[in-house]
User: Fold these one by one.
Assistant:
Number 1:
Amino acid sequence: MKKRYLKITFLLCISAAFLNADILAQTIVIDPGHGYASNGSNPDGRTDTEHATALAVGIKLKNLIESSCSGWNVRLTRSTRNGWITLSQRRAISNNWRADRFISIHCNGGGGTGTETFWCNRSNSPQSANSRFSRQVQDRMVEKGQWRDRRSVEDASFIFHLGVLSGNNAVGVLSEIGFVDSSDASKLLSDSWRNRFADAYFVALQNDLGSRCNSNPPPPSGDTQAPTTSISASGGNTQSGDFTANFNDRDNVGVTQRFYQALEQYGNNWYANRGNGFFNDNFNEFYGAYTQNAGSWTISNGRMRQSNTSVDNTRLNSYLSQNSGLPYLYEFAAKVESTSGPRKFGIHIMADDVTQDQRGNSYLIWFSGEDNKVRIYETINNTLNFRAIGNVNQDNNWANYKITYSPTYGVIEVFKNNTPILKWTDTTPIERGSSISLRTNRTNMLFDDLKVYRHRGGASQVITAGSSYNKDVRRRNGKIKSLVKDAAGNWSLSGNLDVTISSLSSRVFEDFIEEPDAIIKVYPNPTHGQLIVNYPGVSKETTSISIIDITGKTLRTIEEFSEENIVIKRDISTYIELLPEGNYLLKIKNKQISKTIKFIKY
């Protein structure tokens, strides 16, 4: 049996005479253990897995802190492969920088499994503080790294004092992530797992420091004057097809970001072509483009209410193509109605699979009244990864929220009531998305005016208009909107242009709105007998609607012929009333769609 070893080269604990009383409050020293010497030798005899993992995680942690916490100072004891220095030099870096927290990152050996964290009772900081920080690091590593919990322990109680911690003025730990010579190694060598390890350290630091992470962008240097924007159209407000919208943007210093939106009228509602990257819903009625996976989502006095306070991950999803490669602006209004509990809500953007609980791959911008914070998470392969945190007061009042995202540069900026509250840059940004998704956590919420704008580069933009599915405006009555931002983070009021497309007709809401299955809706669900089906009919084609039981047996097929491409509202209550209580499937199929929806008869 291979004997387990703890990799320590400094055998004696050095006592320090002074306690630095002027420790800077938010200074972090990260110590990626070991490393190769400048001549390429391996002084400590460690594996390349440990050298590389410790350095990679240390750099990720440094980048995470610097991109999320403008008020924290952070330093690495080594930043290169051949960056080996002695234990006393590492300790000196920590003391010279007057570190508030010190994390030494290592990997274990000896054929075991799991993670463990050590602290030293001969450091120059209180034992209780070191022990508490050690437990915090250990718990977060177990949670986020999904490791076996080996121990959080004072070093000499297991083997001997650790030289890098002994005499260190900071509250510090030595973390053994996992074992290089067991099945743990596959995680150690994985870049996505290394991201999670960095996340674990970052959250542990925030928790131990009382979330003293000032990630708010700097104040706008005294510039509080908002820019303005207005719109006109070449040729006037009546157009027969594609036209050019001209934007007049003004600011006392200079406009830095420009966004526009093309809308089209359906009855009393203004919607947008989601296939072209636009979205608009004022919640006058329940938009058939949504799918609900969890929660109780209803329209209440022109707002969307989520009233389920037992589900911690509600979902209201909509298809939205986010593939232009240019920045997007996501905007909505929200009000927390719950006065206790988590009071958490947010939106997933750039999502690629809203059928999964974490929406596949996406960014989640997450607001919490529980601790008055806003956080950015990145979901990778349906796993949440914490990325950034900022301060934002949640007071149960209506507020406007804006999020901008650049798929090219990975920059996410978050605003509340037009004030910047958080900024983070993803070095490996998500470039494509197919959905957006509203989300709450055991919170009664109201949402209003959910909008998505696209970036425009200058003072004019071609707006496409016509009956084709890929046009910006596909109905007779259209509207162009504009929003701009200046360098100080000030936002304009919305610019507006109403247009009439003379070559198109005005139809009621039950028109063919966008991509073939966008408008499919089955309601009420669950049902006691009544059932209405909305679906897009295809010109000169038949659509079949099949009722199927849980064994897969088709109980009834209804066929409908359509004269044109319109959305059909079909009452099939006659076929539902006589069904026994239970779970059923409704399959809707024609040349353009094949959709199966579960419904419940009670």
Number 2:
Amino acid sequence: MRGGIMIVRLTFKRLTTRNSHTMTTNHIDVLLVGGGIMSATLAILLHRLDPDLHICMVEKLDDVALESSDALNNAGTGHAGYCELNYTPKNKNGGIEIRRALEINAAFEVSLQCWSTLVKEGVLNAADFIQRVPHLSAVWGEQNSAFLRQRHALLKAHPLFAEMQWSNKPATLTDWMPLMMAGRQQTDHMSATHVAHGSDVNFGALTRQLVAYLKTRANFTLLTQSRVSKLKQQPKHNAWQVHIQNLVSGQSQSYHANFVFLGAGGGALPLLQQSGIAEAQGYGGFPVSGQWLICNNPALINKHHAKVYSQAAVGAPPMSVPHLDTRMIQGKPALLFGPYAGFTTRFLKQGSRFDLAKSVKFRNIKSLLGVCRHNVDLTKYLVKEVFQGHEKRMDALRVFMPEANSRDWTLAHAGQRVQIIKHCHQHWGKLEFGTEIVASADGSLAALLGASPGASVSVKAMLDVLERCFGSRMQSQAWQDTLKSLIPSYGESLIDDAALLARVRRDTLTTLNLSS
């Protein structure tokens, strides 16, 4: 049983049906739309839980992980709440809320555990996708420094953040981030927090490793240069009839899938709308683009080894929190600053400029109008970001690096993010900057919408999909044992169990070479 629905074992064979024209129908258990980190993670979990499941992954581009999971299209930060100040907002009483930071940290630990297990089994090579890069938060001004010190005290009191350090001493800050301290005035009242075992994750490389392993399995099929052209539920069977078109030949094939996962980044929303499930009502998308300044001076790249985050500008979306960022891209160290947010009508980097217009439906028009009405300042901010020149972008960088030289930096386009718009009784619609799973009541379809923390919590997010859509099977002892072997803390709380946290963190930091 899955979510109260009987799963029928189907062999991966071709059946021919005849109507006005003949189309071959492929019967599969699981169809994954999108070849990014989310689909790859769900595929690896399902394969381990039931190796007999026939899984098909569909990717529109030439290869997997070329959109949102690609190295330049995301922050590459192993989001754990160490450096991201937007995860610890102030409440209406002036206090600092840390619960979200704790939850994200614990969720990232789940990903680390799963990756560690796969590294031990030889499925993954840690050196090819994850690197130890310290995580820092840096602020300027007395008021901001007071906030950061209070945040540090609250977080450090919890075992998840026990190793976080805080300092306002110029010598310590110079040791942590020498490029940012060069030429800086001592009157800046600068302070920072530091976590040594932070990480840089190349989610594109990770995705390709996972898919390469899956392709060696008999029951896994990858269809690249292909798109879903039609998606329709068959109510009698609680299954889905899906037409997939090959973009090279133009030919289409029909698939009968018991379960469909829409993990296509910005491409998930249009397919969710096409599905017609009641749970999709009111959902829309707010696309946001991004750009990076990339350093082309090797001497500067070698002087900085950290991910340093600060506070977003007033009116800026959380995804545009500025950071000076050490990255490993194509096996080489890189130094990026940004991202600079902007407005776009595309839902994917290689999408259509008509994506936003096509997403406007009768079922979400009220939500969209509500968001437009209450987010005028955000729209103005994004439009302004689009039209700023190179020197204006350099001015933002010089807040971080006072001695930054324009000639050392070039502009590159980052990925697209489609933020969630959903129904809200009070304002008609609300804009949310997060990650959300939308699933049908019968458990036959699920979609992942939104952005940050996204890829970093991919394992936890896909476990949530399994619990919502494969509920009955998730309760079986066999599945529970398999998940426990992959993720030692599965079913327990890393937030509440300090001893468990100590054990799993010691293991993951060692296995993934993140220990100092």
